[in-house]
Amino acid sequence: MAHTNQATVVTNQDTVPVTKVSQIQKGGAERSAYGVLTLTPATAAQTNAFVRVPARARVTHIGLFNASMGNGSVKIGLFRPNDGIAIDDDVFATAVALTANAGVNVNTVPVPADRALDLKTAYATAVGTASATGDVEYDIVVSVVTVSTGAATAVGMEVKYVMPE
């Protein structure tokens, strides 16, 4: 009996001849980038760049590692490298509490269709608006939404992603 529904990635493999499937959707190796800095969330809109990933990457997971800062929140977005221009400042998360985090996935905003694409394709409109169409890498940045009254704390961010080869 045939499936009731199939994702395009499965349908493409059922065609004759088989339609090639991108390695960012099947068979790609997962890579990671890890950055650590001391976060002092004392000013709203303050930006903190943690990692730089290729524009062709499909991000699968973003985890934060930190002790509790008591209160406050941050958003996680995509920025142009070096100049600090936001491509989309809350593309991954809109409000992550600065309580203790132990690597839980905070990549909560992207819709399922965008999760299947590389960053440059999924956010093409925002990339164009930010004049980042020629960029080969993007920074993943934490921006302060709600100021914390807690002490400065070391924060680690791990970003897992798949690349086409």
Write the topology of this structure.
Layout: H1 8-14, E1 30-39, E2 47-54, E3 58-66, E4 73-79, E5 86-97, E6 101-105, H2 112-115, H3 119-122, H4 124-129, E7 137-146, E8 153-162
Antiparallel strand pairs: 1-8, 2-7, 3-6, 3-8, 4-5, 4-7
Can you put this structure into words, describing what you see?
With 165 residues, the protein is mainly β. It has one domain: Jelly Rolls (Sandwich), CATH 2.60.120. It has helices at 8-14, 112-115, 119-122, 124-129, and strands spanning 30-39, 47-54, 58-66, 73-79, 86-97, 101-105, 137-146, 153-162. The strands form 2 sheets. The chain has a 4-stranded antiparallel β-sheet with strand order 1-8-3-6, with no helix packed on it. Strands 2-7-4-5 form a 4-stranded antiparallel β-sheet. A hairpin with a 6-residue loop joins strand 4 (73-79) and strand 5. The longest helix has 7 residues, at 8-14. The two termini are 35 Å apart. 28% of the residues are buried. The model has no long low-confidence stretch (mean pLDDT 89).
Which key terms come to mind for this protein?
mainly beta; 4-stranded antiparallel sheet; about 160 residues; Jelly Rolls; about 45% strand; elongated
